Description:
The protein is an alpha/beta fold. It has 17 helices and 14 strands. The chain has helices at 17-27, 56-62, 75-84, 99-102, 107-113, 138-144, 163-186, 196-204, 224-227, 245-255, 269-274, 276-288, 292-301, 312-315, 319-324, 365-371, 376-385; strands at residues 8-11, 31-36, 66-70, 90-93, 118-123, 149-150, 156-157, 191-195, 231-232, 237-240, 306-308, 327-332, 336-341, 388-389. It is elongated. The relative contact order is 0.14.
Amino acid sequence: MLPLHGITVIDLTSVVAGPLATQILAQQGAHVLKIEPPEGDRARMLGTIPGPGFSAAHIALNAGKQSIGLDLRQPAARALLERLIPQADVLVHNFRPGVMERLGWGTPALRRLRPDLVIARISGFGQEGPMSGERAYDPIVQAESGMVMRDENGMPQLAPQYLCDKTSGLYAAQAISAALFARSRDGQGRVVDVSMLEAAVAFGWPDMHGSKAFPDHPSKRSSIAAIYQPWATRDGWIVVIMLSDAEFLGWVRALGAPQILADPRFGDMAGRFSNWDALRAFCAPMVAALATHDIVARLRQAEVPCGIANHSEALLAHPQLRHDGFISVANHPHVGRTVQLRPVARFDGDRAGAHRHAAFLGEHTRAALAAAGMSEDEICTAFGTGAAHAAFPVETEK
């Protein structure tokens, strides 16, 4: 049995950060009710879209959740959600500060519906302060948090992924689990707050911003980007890490270049890092003369950490991922074949199955309302007024 079996989560989040947090909870056994507006979660329109309402991002972030269509702009829909909240252990949202209060769901109101409810709030810049009311998307937080890299001309370069969204989702999932654990001991719900800005700065602090750790002892540190810069081979690219004398000696053996050891600039790791440009200039032609798999085999034989810089296409045939069965092809009932990933975490060697599908918008609306104790007449009235909705046709039939 997965560790969150028996836990019910109401997911009011959209796009990436919140859905990733609740996706992790779902993969660890939680029953997640994803509440969606009539237009659906905006993640349904992110990335490749093979069919209406389904995108690569949506399928990756929302597999295994139930989709409940409620138009929370309507008081009647808010009343429906209040029928669901007492059944829930966790409620997660990523509205800007003040939105839940305007909807009538401040913390005291939610506590009246479920006294021990864990309430998780993911915001761009926190619940208070000069930027708390600002809208936040991943690229904005990348910029504000110093997550951006700089090219040789000093121009900022955004990471080509939703890096801050995903970082925030990971922090949120862990904090929610911690709050549930605390509740199991004292019976008290907690309010969990995660600021995307703070999560991004914390994530980058050990390395990107490490030079700021000791304000009274300024030092110039070697650039990680420069030292870990991929090496061009004859037919591709590799990444090599040399952080010890033993690894550097292995590098020298793999290249068959003992003359490197005679250069005093490369006599120890501090000197090598200080003269990294010169070391790269000397070694790069040797690496470029070798095929990727040849140099990788030599480096691994010499116990030098290295890896091939793969394209997305190579992941499907990656030997370790194939061994683990981490990537699989499934037939989604609405969009056909999809490539899916299994959950990352295993518990006693077990993890959730590979073929849990992302739902059609509102696919589980009727079933969820019925499970909350609503009669068929009440459910039909909810659909008739538009308070409840479903793009899944069978849901609208009495």
